[in-house]
Amino acid sequence: MTSLLTADAVARVRGLPGVDQVGLEQRAAGLATRSIKTTAKKWAIDTAIRMVDLTTLEGADTPGKVRSLCAKAMRPDPSDPSCPAVAAVCVYPSMVPVAAEAVAGSGVHVASVATAFPSGQAPMEVKIADTKAAVAAGAGEIDMVINRGAFLSGRLDEVYEEIVAVKEACGEAHLKVILETGELATYDNVRAASWLAMYAGGDFIKTSTGKVSPAATLPVTLLMLQAVRDFRDETGRQVGVKPAGGIRATKDAMRYLVTVNEVAGEDWLDPDWFRFGASSLLNDLLMQRQKLATGHYSGPDYVTVD
């Protein structure tokens, strides 16, 4: 599906029904109590590892730190070759050449934030240049931020056209559209932003930059999973979901996997369609994986400190 005309997309988004807040939060709470059977837990942990976008987005990032992150992405547990690699490493555009060289031929993708991350407050020509530079340097995935000021001011046409333009600038790279749900304030806004991003051609919708609190939450992710499910029913095009920020424990990752399965379905239980934007989560997944294999927890030096 190509992007709709701006007026058509905005009209459809404005016509979306409101969200039942009580019902949404009750369902999320119910799903959070569900557990994964012990026999399936190793599969679930390995699936979650394969879904991680291992991320470093700090002003103090160095080439050495990024190379170390890439080594961990390719071999999360050097002592166990059966441990799968993560989906991608996510870095600032200036670090893309370093990451692309480090993971070349491994199957690990290189993702880069762009479009004046995390604020999104920059002229359009700067955002397009930012995107094109990251892709040219070797990024196969672009994580863009929407202009929340424009969205919250009701300028949906401006937000839509910006996503369309960035998607075009991506070329063959996949586009993840960061909604920054913590700043959108209402579930109605999250639903509207999700559909706007999908109509504009986004390949993924992502909760957060990780720089704003609250970041990913289970109710918001559930709502976004409903949106991608319904969008595929309407258009035939499948879009991924990426919760990011604040997901640190294996038990939380398991709750998200249960929610994916129950809300969107098995088709989304794949790194091509669901990702975790995380760094510390991987360490806990590795610790829990080792516990399943040996029956005991390793010492604190079992995993690297990011």
UniProtKB/TrEMBL annotation:
EC number: 4.1.2.4
GO cellular-component term (any): cytoplasm
Recorded catalytic activity of this chain's protein: 2-deoxy-D-ribose 5-phosphate = D-glyceraldehyde 3-phosphate + acetaldehyde
Keywords: Lyase, Schiff base
Family matches, as InterPro entries: Aldolase_TIM (IPR013785), DeoC (IPR011343), DeoC/FbaB/LacD_aldolase (IPR002915)
Any one GO molecular function term: deoxyribose-phosphate aldolase activity
Similarity field: Belongs to the DeoC/FbaB aldolase family. DeoC type 2 subfamily.
Protein name from the UniProt record: Deoxyribose-phosphate aldolase
Organism: Stackebrandtia nassauensis (strain DSM 44728 / CIP 108903 / NRRL B-16338 / NBRC 102104 / LLR-40K-21)
